[in-house]
Predict the structure.
Amino acid sequence: MSSLTTSKAWTALQNHFNQVRDHSMREAFSKDKDRYKKFSLKFNDIIFDFSKNRITDETLRLLIDLVNECELGAKINAMFSGKIINTTEHRAVLHTALRNRSNYPVYFQGRDVMPDINRVLAKMRTFSESVRSGEWKGYSGKTITDIVSIGIGGSGLGPKMVATALSPYSSSSLKVHFVSNIDQTNLVEVLQPLSAETTLFIIASKVFNTQETMMNAKSAKNWFLDRAKDPQAIAKHFVAISTHADNVAEFGIDTENMFEFWDWVGGRYSLWSAVGLSIALSIGMDNFEALLQGAHEADLHFRNTPFEYNIPVVMALLGIWYNNFFEADSHAVIPYNQSMIHLSDYLQQLDMESNGKSVTLKGERVDYSTGPIIWGQPGTNGQHAFFQLIHQGTKLIPCDFMVAANSHYPLPEHHDILVSNFLAQPEALMNGITADEVKMQLTPEQQANPVLVASKVFEGNKPSSSFLFKKLTPKTLGSLLAFYEHKIFVQGVIWDINSFDQMGVELGKVLARVILKELKNNDEISSHDCSTNALINAYKQFRES
Ligand code: G6Q
């Protein structure tokens, strides 16, 4: 048994769980008119309501005991102060410094990192303003109209999610496109309508040798040179974002056109760095800095607020409660906001790559469940798709709902319908509907049909948390994203895992390199298991050239 599951706090939680597992939230609400007041928190323009969770005062108290026992306070300080907490890769984890708008010194190996961060931010401002204003010209003297950002995983998902979420702030004269997949469909379809004269490529890659990104970048360069016919023109049309200047130069991009970031920025935590250049180009540097400001204020909240009032800590503890005690395997994130369409994809990487681990910091196999499966899509679309299972299926799926009180667009009737659904779903999940209540809505003949009655019952008692915010501004989005980052960190601390490496993505890459060589000719392959051999050989027969 691990020290976590035998700890005093864990044992107390297990005993408590055995007592309260069947408690009804419906009853709790009817008994306690102050439940919302007790179980909700406010931060700037954001309300976090966690009252529709299967918790009592005691649950929260015991969960707080657990984080205290895990020495969360000391671990938060270690992260913010640049300690090597990514021990397997021997790296500090300092994405919070990227958005340190207070500009207090942050030391890494005895050196303040803030001057470097501020220098790159200033360079991003100069560049993005020059492109957005039309001052930056392409090789034929025309203004840039399209940005193609090439990058995958941490160098793709964050910028794409944020640029889409903040599209109401985007420039109408500059369109930003994202290419990540090695499937040529992605690049070919993005490039098809574009003109080389007015397109600027951003190649975003921390290491600048990622297979998909380098292949896409090479094909983009070929596409560009086929049209521009002049290698000198590359300087006006290709910029790089990387920690590896040597690889950037080798690819053929002048390092003058490189925006740097640092080893202590993890890929999936990098949208706050120069990786956010496509965001700055889309919404302007002032808005990008407002995004940083929102995240910074959330960082201060996380660092300085007692755990019971600390939004990311409470989010993390609720997750632990369902994941480890109720044995819920997944967690749905459902923004009632079409522009947040990529949020669940982004959070899926952030959470699953961070906490999809099964050994502790000491290398021992855990004997408890770690990171959940994260999924979701915007409401109300999801209601017409997977909500059936959340309401009446056999699985417990805690959900996060979110909505802005004000839309950026001018159709109020739409917005009230949207918000009514955002409010109704958590209520329905919590309350459910009993057989007696079902019968009251049926004709006598229908009431006599037990199958019909049973099919219409909603058991209820399904947990959810809700974020209601004034408007989806850059600042609010920055805060929300930082909350999720810190939630994941806190859970990693409790599970005693390294949330900042991603060794699990390596094996498939290595095998793909072996197989790629085998695909270069039509020889029959027999070096793998019989299934892989058969598929390789069938591919060779099917392919047309
Ligand atoms: C994220 C991961 C991973 C990474 C991509 C792209 O934390 O490290 O998703 O971001 O593999 O890597 P590069 O930016 O180095 O191309």
